[in-house]
Structures
1.
Amino acid sequence: MISGILIFNQKGENLIFRSYRQDCRPRLADVFRIQVISNPAVRSPILTLGSTTFSHVKHENIYLVAVTKSNANAALIFEVLGKLVALGRSYFGKFDEEAVKDNFVCVYELLEEIIDFGYPQNTETDTLKMYITTEGVHSSGTRSIEDSSRITMQATGALSWRKPDIRYRKNEAFVDVIEDVNLLMSAGGTVLRADVSGQIIMRAYLSGMPDCKFGLNDRLLLDPASLAQGGPAVGNTAGAKATKAAAGSVTLEDCQFHQCVQLGKFQNDRIISFVPPDGEFELMRYRATENVNLPFKVHAIVNEVGRSKVEYSIAVKSNYGSKLFATNVVIRVPTPLNTAKTTERVSQGKARYEPEHNNIVWKIPRFSGQSEFVLSAEASLSAMTTQKAWSRPPLSLAFSLLMFTSSGLLVRYLKVFEKGNYGSVKWVRYMTRAGSYEIRF
Amino acid sequence: MAVNRIKASFAQPRKGETFELRAGLVSQYAYERKEAIQKTIMSMTLGKDVSALFPDVLKNIATGDLDQKKLVYLYLMNYAKSHPDLCILAVNTFVQDSEDPNPLVRALAIRTMGCIRVEKMVDYMEEPLRKTLRDESPYVRKTAAICVAKLFDLNSALCLENGFLETLQELMGDPNPMVVANAVTALAEISEAAPETRALQITPTSLKKMLMALNECTEWGRVTILSTLADHKAADVTEAEHICERVSPQFQHVNPSVVLAAVKVVFLHMRYIKPETARSYLKKMAPPLVTLVASPAEVQYVALRNIDLLLQKQPDILSKELRVFFCKYNDPSYIKFEKLEIMVRIANDKNVDQLLAELKEYALEVDMDIVKRAVKAIGQVAIKIESATERCVNTLLELINTKVNYVVQEAIVVIKDIFRKYPGYEGIIPDLCKCIEELDEPSARGSLIWIVGEYAEKISNAGDILTGFVEGFMEEFTQTQLQILTAVVKFFLKKPQLPQSQALVQKIFQSATAENDNPDVRDRAYVYWRLLSSNPQIAQNVVLSDKPPITTTIQSLPAPLLERLLTELSTLASVYHKPPESFLGQGRYGADTLQKAAIEEQMQNARENPLAAAAAAAAVSGAPPNPQANAENLLDIDFDGAAPASAQKEPGGGMSGLEGLAGTPQRIQSPVAANGPSRPPASMGGMDDLMGLSNGNSGGGGGGNNNMLGGSGGGGGLEELMGGGAPQTNGSASMGGMSDSDILGGFAAMDVNPSQQQQQQSTTTGDGQGVKKSTNQDLLDLF
């Protein structure tokens, strides 16, 4: 159980102090400031002094600290702090010192509502937004009592994420499959680690209490059951043609679902069945490690010539259909800390040296499929009194690529069942982004 | 506009602020009053004492504005203790609010009432609580359920009298899942605080209810229910199977804490069910655990520490997932360390090549800590997997050839361990001996000397190498001195006829017994001396006997502790890998437990920090009072009436002392550490503490120094006694020398002492400065 939540700025000023139990005394704020904030050698996010434990998370320019006095659930504490950050961002745009100072009343209100006596209660943004607002000018007079009753029903109900009386003229559902490819490639060009962490974001604008069933080309589902099941009713096949990997099925290493998904059903017969919240939400997250299609191949040659120069020759090749194109491709090529100046030549896009990050940043706004571009650069180094070896951080890529999934995942169907029996339109979109796409050299 | 004013109040306090606030609080305009309340809360947060405004804030309690009400309640909760009498004025509003038609207001009232910890308030709580527990709105009921726990904490007798516990137990069957979850939470808290109430009894019915609620309630409710299920001991196999079956879908939850809680439940109940079913659950558990590694750093850290525990119990669950634990370039170092440990744990024949390549990569990085640990990990892998030893040794040799000082040192320490397990790599010894000059850490020097002594017969120039060390004997660390001593004796026993070895052994005994002031070194030298002079054959049997081979260098927790920690998965105990009582010094734990825990902690420290090793020894001997215990108690002292007003009246020095102590339990012990086994009087430690507070490290260092000298004096006496015995067997040639060097030894001790002291001091200085700084800071803060 959490004894108190504290928020500090970087200077160690206490911005928010909310104690949930009497053992969280104001003096503890000083202890934290001295022991963590003004102590540059902080090693771990958890610090126990005496029997008081401080668990902290740093976000933007503030510290969020949970004080506990017992053998509390550490994972839960960090999750609560993470949720608090998420809430703050969704309420104030961003959650930093400025936002906390400007909205401290609202922050206190949120803290009051999400935790009671040290036990987290409800952290659903949508529900909280119904009765805690940033304007702070409403009073119970302007809101009818039935309204409040409804809110509280929803905050505690079995379907705490959905209001019962939603009506849309046009029933639509948008599904975005967004994949982050993580790659770690060794200097020798072998793939050390390649995996995909994907998320499926859904925007549901559906009336009533729709019961949705959702199908993917998940191997576990397909192999035993594909024969038994009839032709899948695919809502919209726009994405299917575009994805090359459509041929096979995909092995999902692990999936995690929004709380609206009935986990028991998934466990037993791999059916994703749910009543969606209204509007946008993250339906599921998944991880795939087999047969990852890497959209880009990078070939990097970096030579340190003596102590005064580093030569780069970086070739990037796209490895997807020629009709597709990636946007916002950014390649960051690390340079030694004592780089004095650089010269770079590129066959496409623009390259620039960013001394503050010790990077040569090569930007290619549009990178079409099956093509290859080259950067050759030279960094001249200034002489240093202490010759310390250069740590050679990995080269990293960022990009986003539409209508392509690295894992080969496809949405096979999305069925909506509702009492009203209305027709609905469904849209599917695929996108692959770079997660941590790193190449050592 | 309001925002600007609030900002201004952050920037600088003006004079007469309290006055202004009071004027605002009693203003006739509602908006001014509200603004003043906000400012008051702001000042409260900044740690200013605004308790004087209590009556004025209280006047604003009866308002229709929910926001304002919340703020007033917040203020009340903070300052109720300083004005217990005035709180009664608020009671009426609370009671009224608890019957308000708006469920939000009802819940707010009952929630706040529980947080006002004033005895008089308790009497008025009874009725509203009873009503709200039966409220039609589940939102109010779930809030009331928690309130029972608050009341129990405040006045358990009243809580029992009114039968609130029974009501809570009924609420476990509530149709609303959140009410169930909160009822479970409250009952769990009550039964932890007072086990004799037996508040939380899991019957088949309530188990069913909980499993039903599990699928419907919020993520936090799930964690509560899962934790309760984990503590529950299944009645029979069927029940355990049922629990596992119902809980395992939660592996797919998006919230890591739910996943960990579910893993815990299944892991603990798994041992009662059929092994094949259990295995399938283990398989199911792996992917979610791996997914946790992708969470934000802090959660990831908790997850990694827990995975480490799980792996110690079930080493093969993640054997295919090695790559997931590869360090990212920008992982914080505490995560990298954990990942390294886990990688070594899951290393096997199949993935060892991959792992070695990766470890080598880390060993060539710039960050010294990571490099050292990576080298160490290579050694651990070599000892764990026999088939990979050769590759590991080759990798280590490559690393030694980089000639980077700290890499070489760590590699030598690691190779020594490999030698202890696998003979047959003596071929690389010449390579090792080449880097003798670069070693400056005692453990690295010690390791190399050990190797030289152990394989003296195979090293052609062993005698020359040892001669070099013997000549510089007095400048070495104690640890290294002991190694030199042993190595020379080994060398002598292996090649007794060499004149060089005879000369060496004479010389080393001379310097170790006569010139050295360390009783350990001296004692060991005498033991060897006697042994050699009585019967060389026996000496050979003793010194050159086969050593028990080591099986692993991977640190593992002792089995009982591991079992204990598995029941604490995902809690702080699992993060620290220590039983909870070791860091929770609460009253209900006995002093013995605390002492035991402290000793264990010292051992842990000793492993990380050699300086503290001696402190651990001192702690075991029970001589000094454990400052840690003091520190805990001091931090736990309840400054009743937590209002800053009372805190400010505390004498400044005392306060700062507390802070210093609290933050630096083992740092304060470091002067004691210098004493080693010489058993300082208990009061000494206390004095050090006091001095440490007033003038930082110099006091502590001085204390250590005194003892050091005392210790050497005592040792000198001992030496004379023993010196009398020794020469009899050893010829009179050395006798004259002995008595001379005895006096010289006294001076030598004086000479050496400061240099050692310096070293110790320099190591303590870093820590000491920390103490000093924080103390100063505190003083500044206070005045």
2.
Amino acid sequence: MSLSRLSALRSGLRCNAVKVPSSTMISQYWGPCDRRELSIHSPRQAIAQHNTKPDWNRAVSEAEKIVGYPTSFLSLRWVLSDEIANVALHLRKLVGSNHPLLKTAKNLIYNGKNNMQAWGLIVLLVSKAAGHSPEIPDMEQDKAAGVLHSQRALAEVTEMIRTSHLVHKGLVNMNARHRTADEPDDMMFGNKIALLSGDYLLANSCSELANLRNQELVELMSSAVRDLAEAEFLGERDDQNNPLPSRPLPQEQRENASEWDCILNPLPMSGVIGSARREWAARHVLAAGALLGKSCSAALKLAGHIPGLQTKGYLFGCHLALAWQAFLDLEAFTGPEPASFSLVGAPLAFTLEARPELYSYIEAGRKSVHEVDYHALYKAVLEGDGIEQTKQLQREHIATACEVLESFPNCDARTALANIIVAMQQDHL
Amino acid sequence: MACLSSSRLCARVQDKLLCQFGHKVRKQTVFVKLKPPGPSPLRIFGKTCQRVTTCGPACGSGGAGAATAGLVRRLASSLQSTSTGSLPDYGTQIIDPYRLLEDDLNGIYEDIRSELEKNTNQAELNTIATYYFDGQGKALRPMVAILMARAVNYHVYGENSALLPSQRQVAMISEMIHSASLIHDDVIDQSDFRRGKPSVNVLWNHKKVAMAGDFILAVASMMIARLRSDDVTLVLSQVVTDLVQGEFMQLGSKETENERFAHYLTKTYRKTASLIANSVKAVALLSGADEATCEVAFQYGRNLGLSFQLVDDLLDFVSSAQAMGKPTAADLKLGLATAPVLFACEKYPELNPMIMRRFGESGDVEKAFELVHKSRGLEQTRFLAKQHGAEAARLAAHLSPSAYQRALLLTTDLVLNRIK
């Protein structure tokens, strides 16, 4: 009974997200936030995103069918747990305040392109595409979906870790010493709730992982949590910890190598800062690639695959995440000019490298990224070949991901993964 | 053969002592680490051999590890010739657990710091993450974990037992989980001072502090995984769940008067006692003790933890800010009703509405503070803490008598009588 109610609720939410005219929804909910926080998707971007959705949505919903019910835990444990019921009550108090936690919560519910579900989904698709060793007892398999129960649990953990990180990232920086009227109690309260909700998800993923009784897996996934934390410290930041690109190094000091082979060690940083390609890659490997890659690798470990294939799984996840990121970065430059866009996106990084004098625009954002003249940077990106270079970058990562895909047997899950990748490319062509 | 090995070991003892001596001269507090490296459980016996033989030629009796430690220390003190006389015999008398475990605890903060440092290439993250591992803490959790580890090892293997490296790892992990939760607490409570210095949220921005907490937890969790024991991982993952649930409980105060005390105790267990209880259970599991012994360890930790927190709540009312290293009456200011207030409520029902509004109106904190002092709330809290301490001591008596077991008993008193 409660299950059907929940799934109805969920599909209802989805319909709403599509039906409601996006512009009103956005101005209604996001309008007040823009002053305080740079949102990753500015309103205009979100509209652009909306128009390009169908192919993507089709690829994702087809893929969801292949591995059984939607992978998200949001519909079940999340809603049913006491703690979250508690949080929901408190969240209500925050409505009307500008706390970004509300935005994070909304992003979780409305299926944007950046959605959580797709991450767990990819882990499950990789699981199914690779199959599992014949020694695994029937009891541990979800025969209908073609994945292991443990892999489904892992997919949930992946989503929980990612959500937890997003929620913690959504904290507002407040000055503890000089509290001003602009930073009222509800901001502090919002921070408290955000911190606790994130911790709750993290704690749950700890115990889910422990229940899998595979210590190599626990180590691998914990290292992904570590990488996410590291990501928030890379390079320069404004006062709200929004990332800024580093000053480009002079031509002769740039290095091109990129190394992510030692999975369990922290990502090496030598020669990364100031070199557009490597800095972009390092930033997004830490913030996204590591988690997706390690989750894919862990899924293959659970299925009893050899270490060689596990490494390939890691590379697949990493390259897919980077291709995805390149895609998101490009989005700002495909539709009408957005009010703001990611300052650490690849198109801008390449442009800055080609024209280092533009870095003065970035320096204007030291205190707050809102101070940056986005229009000037936007024009500079369109004038240069940053977009073309980013497309090339995306093609490279897609090619590497597809190469890994070739090593799995041809099956519906592999096709679904390929479709997701194609959908990601098509939108720009 | 025996002769050969014993003379070799004798030389080693002397080396060790000279080393200690040398260090003492250079730097007053540093001792060399005696912990040999390597993870195999067999090393219990390996190290034991060493211990027994080191003792053999020097004192002529195959004394227990504790006796050896005593001897080593006596020798050390006579070498330094700074002590006023020979130290007490650890075989029969009760000694300060921190001194008993000096060698094991020595360098524990350094080890934690280097573990964290190994796991990041971001300098600022490293700075924030290692901020509270400056050696200024009480290190109660690692101390109790190691004490229990040695006591249980003695209980199971007799005098031929030593601390396993994995058990010392658990001690480090317990302190790391504790610090990770402190760091997040600082953001939640907006506290300005902790351990006598500015708290992390004053020095760095909140997002970074939150991430540093996640980072410490992640590294601790990797260390747990590297112990490669399913049961230990399960036991320690429970701690993290408990901590968060405890924090959630602290958020709400909807419960009725009757439920309030139970709510408080459950919250106290989850926020404080669970970490101590489960980490001592983890070291017992690692030692290979039977289920009953693991349960004794767990219950000891639970009662000690409850006693510890009750005293903490008590000190929040009576201790000076200077001694605590953090502001007093902090709990009231945060809107929290701890045991002294809940007890005081019986005599002064006017506290009830204040509890319900979380001491939110002006004058509430001062009024409640005064009423607690006028009531018997502090006394009753101490009594409850004493009871849990006594229960912990009763449980520790189940373990075979050893210096460590006696130190476990003494720890219950230490917790009760501490002033900070």
3.
Amino acid sequence: MDEGRIVKVSGPLVIAEGMGNAKMYDVVRVSDKRLIGEIIEMRGDRASIQVYEETAGLGPGEPVYTTGEALSVELAPGLIEAIYDGIQRPLDEIKDRVGDRIERGIELPGIDHERKWHFQPRVAPGDSVEPGDILGVVQETTVVEHRIMVPHGVRGTVRDIKEGEFTVVDVVATVETSDGVKDITMLTRWPVRRGRPYAEKLAPYAPLVTGQRIIDMFFPVAKGGAACVPGPFGSGKTVVQHQLARWADSDIIVYVGCGERGNEMTEVLMDFPELTDPRTGEPLMKRTTLVANTSDMPVAAREASIYTGITIAEYFRDMGYNVALMADSTSRWAEALREISGRLEEMPGEEGYPAYLGSRIAEFYERAGRVKCLGTDGREGTLTAIGAVSPPGGDLSEPVAQATLRVAKVFWGLDATLAARRHFPAINWLISYSLYLERLEEQLSKTVATDFGDLRKEAMQLLQEEAELEEIVRLVGIDALSIKDRLSLETSKSIREDFLHQNAYHEVDTYTSLNKQRLMLKAILDFHHSALNAVEAGVHFDAVMKLEVRDNIARMKYIPEHEDERLNSVFREMKAAFAGLTQAGEGEEVA
Amino acid sequence: MLKEYRTVSEVAGPLMVVEQVEGIKYGELVEIEVSKDEIRRGRVLEADGSKALVQLFEGSAGLNLATAKVRFLGRGIELGVSMDMLGRVFDGFGRPRDGGPQIIPEKKVDINGNPINPYARDYPSEFIQTGISAIDGLNTLVRGQKLPIFSGSGLPHAALAAQIARQARVLGTDEKFSVVFGAMGITFEEADYFISDFRRTGAIERAVLFVNLADDPAIERISTPRMALTAAEYLAFEKDMHVLVILTDITNYAEALREVSAARMEVPGRRGYPGYMYTDLASMYERAGRIKGRKGSITQIPILTMPEDDKTHPIVDLTGYITEGQILLARELHRKGIYPPIDVLPSLSRLKDKGIGDGKTREDHADTMNQLYAAYARGKDAKELAAILGEAALSEDDKRFSKFADEFEMRYVNQGLEENRTIEQTLDLGWELLTLLPVRELKRIREEYIEKYLPDTRPA
């Protein structure tokens, strides 16, 4: 192991000399405290090192050791239900070892090397295998089957493989390759800054169903897509991210808390084992991996946490799963980049951010996608990336938001005014967009109902119209509007309050299936059509507005899933109510 | 014997460079002997070969390059903690300023602390009754939360913070909060207001005060909140106390941070504040919380005066991203004579949902809270409309909402400086105000609660 000497310490940046043999992005151990760092610049034999732990107490003259390896994560059974810091050290074990606070210089493997797993082979001796082929499986949790793949660079014939209890470092199979026999363990390592390879990238086509009405109905994201949630503080970014992590119909969730509040991670840790997945009936934690680098933890590890998270996500994608990664918040990651860049005395770009900010953000989101995985079976996996952005003052013109908008295909713009009215999720329907709409429409009309797209279009039109009409009302008052326009206003109000507004903390309202979403929106629009007809037939506007069935429409969100009868009865009541009205209306005319 | 250096080569603003030093460590504490009887303190900001860049806490006035003697103490800044701290007033660097004796420390603790392992945190969920309706009813505070007050110059944030410190209780117990008070660059009068209030109510017996006044060294402010939090952590996690930490004024703290950053000629972020301000503020705010298996808790109430009442100012903005909500004071309400002038719409407590409801406050709390918010927002809209088009342009419903908004401000938000409302009083008051509205508009409340709690008096 090579040894250098520290010459300068400035915050998380350490400069060491005598590092001629080290490579860029090598992991190093700094001082005898063995703090973990990574080389981010080399000049002659001087290396600039970003240190992933607090550097107080370090000084010139202390040693630096290179490990010769890039920053990597361990990939093996044991990832699910884990909670890691930014460089994949298990936080639960850190607590066991050193107590409530994170001390420095702790070296712990990301995966438990002692624990035994039951390995079941999927190939037999004599089978020929190539990278990505599934050698066998381990039932990691009740819902996740961990597929052990042939590592990259290994191709040949299986010589030996057996079922049994193994640790992740035991040899489970041997493969005869052109350069000799290779031992295969369940554990592999992968450098986090390099995307994992796949056979082919494909266009996404299926929606990620989240149970969040405004998202699924108006601004859906595809499995394998990239979405961003920018918003000022207090607008509910984290609640949106948590809701997606809870209810998205993904096989695996990787949640990265990057430079955010400690209590938010605690909330996930407490809630997820309690909440059940609506699809499997098992606790949500059984499909979740957490990476938590809270805002008081070292800033350099925050920079790494995003990569640690996405590498773990790619690993599961390669097994052929649908994986969703939530990163909250990418702005904190960008700020970590900025801090390190400032310490390196690089020439700053906009607002002090380094000039390469845009390309780093693009690289990150581009690791999302639907792919044909390596391996002979041609299985497909998807990785959906959803990043929160925290623009200063909610101003989207800042560099991180702008760079993100250039690459993310879905934009859920959070709005402080909506949040102040406690309209949650505070996604502004007028500024948000999804570029997956057309692509997903086909799939949705097949799986849900053919009118899915039409309902959305009509509702969106009404909401647009509302924005314009409100302008007029503000200038000249409500009386200046025609009855038809007033009806449009009432209907869009109903869309907003009864459909778009969704209470994440209400036991029923927190998740709505696509089918129920469609029924709810259909009820609102059916009422609109019937009301239009009634008013045209001479019924008084106020009489329509006073119909009790409107309350029932408003309360549809609280009707539990699968109580279809109660949902359907709203439509019958509506029919009856309007029938009553027109008869009474005719009566009046006669009188 | 520590080595003494007389090799100060440069002093500029709050920074000093010492050359030809050996064995210095990043972050260590430095003593500078300016003259025989004056010793100042500093901290190593950068260790570059044999050169040390030192941040001076007490300014550079009177410092002579040739005669100044510098000692590196080989440790970070520490605070000696003991139970004797209670009832005492210290300066921003932890030295007694009340004329009392030095305390004999039980132990010395580095003021920077280590980050709390998120896995070791316990989720804050115990309701704190502050006796203030706008907080208890709508922006509920829980034990272990960090909830700042965003104020402006001339607004009664000090009175509000003192009232919270005075009245805060956890329901069902008589247990009182200990108060740790950290003052950064506030005026003597403001500090005196708190100290006298603590004395008057006897709270001083369970309070520790760290006071850096407006005319005290500005750079010292960088260590003041950390002193306060170190004391709080000792009381909370080692002595099982529930501690309320009031930090005022974060704006002055951030300005001290900017001064150091500017002197180092760092690339500035927004408005000249350093790019690492988020991280720096977070390292303070995140020290609030609860830890599994420990009885005590730290609840933080930092106070910020927003420059020009601007919510998007970097100090306010970054704070809002770290803290768990905010209590926003509004000048408009203050002018109307409403105390506390809490603007409930942009105010928020992120942890309220875990602290309210059946068994904590009352089952109807969440629903009525949402309804009051929505109704007040609509009422304010209606009033805005009426201001342009006249009262006559409002629909019947809108008129009711507009009346509701007025009553809500006057009766719910507004209360006396000494008025301590129980949570039941607050919730009942909410229901009373909701009778001003038609029942069919109460969409956010479950029907069963409407039947159970809504008073019978219907509007004509």
